[in-house]
Amino acid sequence: MVVVPVASYFVMQEILAQNAIQHWFQVPPEILSPWGDPLIFVKIFIALVAVVVIYAILLLVAFTYDKLFGPPHYGPTDSPPSDPGVHRS
Could you give the 3-state DSSP secondary structure of residue 83? Predict the structure, then answer.
């Protein structure tokens, strides 16, 4: 639970460092903070986007792993699925 936010912080730092070199995007002056770190809102936004992307990648890997190597859908003691067209009373 702590790994993803910490990783997103480092991703955000690297994105901002590379942006200073490569000029990928410009930060509008309207979103700069008047106190403390002027890029705090940009840093928070990039970190939140990084959290969502990292969680999505981890979920995709986990679901794929579970689908490929997880237990079968029905076990030996499960009854077979009923036919939806047959009504039993």
Answer: coil
In a domain, 15, yes or no: yes
Evaluate whether residue 40 is within a structural domain: yes
Tell if the pTM clears 0.90, that is, is over it.
no
Residue 38: which residues within 8 A CB-CB, separation 6 or more? 32
User: Are 16 and 47 spatial neighbours (Cβ–Cβ below 8 Å)?
Assistant: no
In-domain check, residue 74: no
For residues 50 and 56, what is the distance between their CA atoms, to the nearest angstrom?
Answer: 10
Q: Tell me: the pLDDT tens digits for 40-68?
A: 999 999 999 999 999 999 999 999 999 99
The tally of domains found in the chain comes to 1
**φ, ψ at 50 (rounded to 5°):** -65, -40
